[in-house]
Specification:
Elements: E1 5-11, E2 14-19, E3 37-45, H1 48-54, E4 70-77, E5 89-92, E6 95-96, H2 102-105, E7 122-123, E8 139-142, H3 145-148, E9 150-151, H4 155-160, H5 162-165, H6 171-181, E10 189-193, H7 197-208, E11 213-218, H8 221-229, E12 233-236, H9 243-251, E13 256-261, H10 282-290, E14 291-298, H11 313-316, H12 324-329, E15 333-335, H13 345-353, H14 359-363, E16 365-369, H15 373-381, E17 387-391
Parallel strand pairs: 10-11, 10-13, 11-12, 13-14, 14-15, 16-17
Antiparallel strand pairs: 1-2, 3-4, 3-8, 3-17, 4-5, 5-9, 6-7
Helix pairs in contact: 6-7
Family: Belongs to the zinc-containing alcohol dehydrogenase family.
Organism: Herbaspirillum rhizosphaerae
EC number: 1.2.1.46
Amino acid sequence: MAENRGVVYVAHGRVEVQSIPFPKFDNPQGRKIEHGVILKVVTTNICGSDQHMVRGRTTAPSGLVLGHEITGEVIEVGKDVETLKKGDLVSVPFNVACGRCRTCKEQHTGVCLSVNPARAGGAYGYVDMGGWIGGQAEYVMVPYADFNLLRFPDKDKAMEKITDLTCLSDILPTGFHGAVTAGVGPGSTVYVAGAGPVGLAAGASARLLGAAVVIVGDVNSTRLQHARSVGFETVDLSQDATLADQIAAILGDSEVDCAIDCVGFEARGHGHSGSQVEAPATVLNSLMEITRAAGRIGIPGLYVTDDPGAVDTAAKRGSLSIRLGLGWAKSHSLHTGQTPVMKYNRQLMQAILWDRLHIADIVGVQVISLDQAPGGYGEFDAGAPKKFVIDPHGALAA
């Protein structure tokens, strides 16, 4: 039996690299499947969504193999797979999707009806998302491979741009989805809440879609400095000046055309004294304040149904004090939910391959080994302006 190692959630604040079983062609219920492939993982990324689990903010069980951002080489092919072969280099959308149900056929692959017995939507290595084993590992099995996988047309060229292409599994399509659902277009003024990797990917996507100006807001001065270094305007939400006033100082207008929430439920209050106080509805409420009438708000930031670490009883159940009346009065459109990665990843791949988008520089990719993953989690949790990309087999180092 071949060996395998992966990043495992052990307890609140703790992950370890452990020996894990080599993948089999089995679904989480133990049924044999032949529509999958086994990948030798080339890159796999640490995501802010992983951090929610590691911080103890979900019901994730100890022993969960983490990782839903995966790029890999096909090394074994199930008997029912027709369009892939050994040696293909592929990007894995973080959504596990069957391609057969109603929502998949309508391109809503983030809420596939077949891959998770508990609810709509599946993902690798994530709590309540169907039990699919995560890909922060040396090897992983991907089901419904013909449907799910994006094959890179030129393997050598793809490896030259692998630190950009690794972002196709989640953060780049997620940021792009946020920008699209916020209505970003040529000449738009855009505000992005959050200067982490998804926020920066949303800002880059807004520029790709033709935005005139992109403003990124955060309380982390180091992340804001990085955002400025890659060309975004910034606002510092740890300051006492209101968000509207800081936007007005940049635009001459206190409202923007489009807004994108890339923070989610672990948001912090605005103002110097409140910047470390958790206020899970603060981003959504502030975006309704600064988005123009009839504007749109994209919400790729994660919100959960169960949050054991929440600040109050309502928030523990995902109930937040949102000023829906304000959004209603301004005729806002709000778009939520997990990104349907396959709706965008092929076009974004072409943008990378043809040098329209250097996303690795924008999000601050830093390549680390599998054994360095626990340290990467710690640095990322401390707010480092980086996107940690794990290289399990040393392929990038070589």
